[in-house]
């Protein structure tokens, strides 16, 4: 089978805030079509890494930042519409604020229905629950209609059943995805590849089928990698690193 083209690539990349090193010597290649889960303890550098990757393909990507990045005083409809702003002229977008465009309206209504938000379409998002707000942010990413999805804990505020369904839907709707999660089982069940960061370093980059929950749990506890016994190189060209 031919190897898919490289979509995103970092080579020995480091990032510091002042004298605080946040990412250290990261080399990472993501190919078209890959579904990559990004794991690691809080503060490990996942958001920083995701932003770095997103900056390589902003025009063809939808980014769902941590917290959603919604505009509180606008409605669910308007927030979802913002995902597609690039496709409309400024005048059309402004007009849409006053009177929703019929074409966008039918698309956004369909997205809201898929996300169980049809009853909230005209409500301002500051009156929604955390899980509902997160679904609006997913709707905005879906309306962006791009092949690549970056999600920073995109389903952390919804209940476990919804999290499974929404994650599966997001992965189905995007050709390539990089998603940070704290739920290790979701990562194992839904992704091809799992990348784990610890203290700004890559400590695991491995096909999901070669990992289990206990190994992933240990990344949150131990200094050394629990998969150090696994082969260093796989047929897919992924390298397992130990911290
Ligand atoms: N703008 C900033 N200025 C200074 N330090 C920052 C900034 N953004 C992040 N950091 C620091 O960089 C480190 C990595 O942060 P990052 O948000 O990338 O981690 P994370 O793995 O996504 O964490 P979490 O799982 O809690 O969201 C943290 O120590 C954080 O305090």
UniProtKB/TrEMBL annotation:
InterPro entries: AAA+_ATPase, ABC_transporter-like_ATP-bd, ABC_transporter-like_CS, MetN_ABC_transporter-like, P-loop_NTPase. It is found in: Cell inner membrane. The keyword Nucleotide-binding applies. Residues 8-224 form the ABC transporter domain. Keywords: ATP-binding, Cell membrane, Membrane, Nucleotide-binding, Translocase, Transport. GO terms for molecular function: ATP binding; ATP hydrolysis activity. GO terms for cellular component: plasma membrane. It is a peripheral membrane protein. SUPFAM superfamilies: P-loop containing nucleoside triphosphate hydrolases. This is ATP-binding cassette domain-containing protein. It comes from Pseudomaricurvus hydrocarbonicus. The lineage of its organism: Bacteria, Pseudomonadati, Pseudomonadota, Gammaproteobacteria, Cellvibrionales.
């Amino acid at each position: 089978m031919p190897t898919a083209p490289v979509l995103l690539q970092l080579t020995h990349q480091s990032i510091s805030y002042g004298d605080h090193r946040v990412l250290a010597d990261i080399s990472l290649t993501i190919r078209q079509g890959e579904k990559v889960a990004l794991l690691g303890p809080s503060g490990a550098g996942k958001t920083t890494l995701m932003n770095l990757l997103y900056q390589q393909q902003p025009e063809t990507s939808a980014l769902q930042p941590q917290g959603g990045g919604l505009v509180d005083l606008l409605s669910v409809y308007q927030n979802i519409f913002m995902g597609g702003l690039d496709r409309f002229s400024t005048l059309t977008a402004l007009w849409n604020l006053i009177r929703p465009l019929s074409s966008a309206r039918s698309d956004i209504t369909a997205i809201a229905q898929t996300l169980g938000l049809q009853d909230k379409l005209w409500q301002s998002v500051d009156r929604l629950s955390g899980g509902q707000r997160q679904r609006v942010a997913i709707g905005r990413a879906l309306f962006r209609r791009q092949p690549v999805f970056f999600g920073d804990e995109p389903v952390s505020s919804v209940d476990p059943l919804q999290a499974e369904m929404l994650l599966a839907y997001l992965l189905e709707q995007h050709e390539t995805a990089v998603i940070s999660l704290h739920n290790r089982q979701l990562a194992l069940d839904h992704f091809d590849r799992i990348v784990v960061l610890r203290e700004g370093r890559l400590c695991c980059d491995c096909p999901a089928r070669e990992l289990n929950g206990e190994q992933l749990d240990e990344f949150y506890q131990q200094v050394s990698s629990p998969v150090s016994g696994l082969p260093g190189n796989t047929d897919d060209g992924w390298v397992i690193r130990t911290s």
